């Protein structure tokens, strides 16, 4: 059975959900990139700020693991964020060999602004749904997300789908 036949054997709802999730992601990324550009950021720089904020203080190794970027690329991004005073770089008081990163107040404000703009855009798209319908969407998406996470944890891979 070739790939097209396999795809057509999946139920229509699976194919529709897959397309809708990809489209939602595409529109959110397009909107986010446009607004990041207006504020002098790129998506990788935004993601570095976000990963620092979620886990600060962090070191470069942590960011490298989370972002799947080459160390050289990550260093250039962090250097620029430090130069622009969005990120503070300092040595760990416990181990002077370790360099830590955290957001400055201006970096935190910029990140919060970008998240607010993005989430406001999504909120406008959800305006047609009442709160009960939004709760149903959250419940359904959460269930799918939890199932996908469980499949990954138990080592589900592509062998059975090939």
What layout of secondary structure does this protein have?
Layout: H1 3-9, H2 12-38, H3 43-55, H4 60-67, H5 71-83, E1 87-91, E2 99-103, H6 105-125, H7 131-153
Antiparallel strand pairs: 1-2
What is this structure, in a nutshell?
The chain has 162 residues and is mainly alpha-helical. It has helices at 3-9, 12-38, 43-55, 60-67, 71-83, 105-125, 131-153, and strands at residues 87-91, 99-103. It is built from seven helices and two strands.
Description:
Strand 1 and strand 2 (99-103) form a beta hairpin. Helices cover 69% and strands 6% of the residues. Strands 1-2 form a two-stranded antiparallel ribbon. It contains 7 helices and 2 strands. The chain has a single domain (3-128), classed as Winged helix-like DNA-binding domain superfamily/Winged helix DNA-binding domain (Arc Repressor Mutant, subunit A, Orthogonal Bundle), CATH 1.10.10. It is mostly helical and 162 residues long. The N and C termini lie close together (10 Å). Helix 2 crosses helix 6 (105-125) and helix 3 (43-55) crosses helix 5. The longest helix is centred in the N-terminal third of the chain and has 27 residues, at 12-38.
Mean pLDDT, all residues? 90
Structural class: mainly alpha
> Can you give the helix content as a percent range?
55-70%
What's the structural domain tally?
1
> Roughly how many Å apart are the termini?
10 Å
Provide the CATH top-level class. Answer: Mainly Alpha
Fourth-tier CATH superfamily name: Winged helix-like DNA-binding domain superfamily/Winged helix DNA-binding domain
Give me the count of strands.
Answer: 2
What fold name stands as the CATH topology? Arc Repressor Mutant, subunit A
Hey, roughly how much beta strand do the residues contain?
A: 5-15%
Using the CA coordinates, give the radius of gyration: 20 Å
Spatial strand sequence of the major β-sheet: 1-2
- Give the low-pLDDT segments: none
The count of helical stretches stands at 7
CATH architecture: Orthogonal Bundle
Element-level helix/strand string: HHHHHEEHH
Overall geometric form:
globular
Q: What summary fits the major beta sheet? A: 2 strands, antiparallel
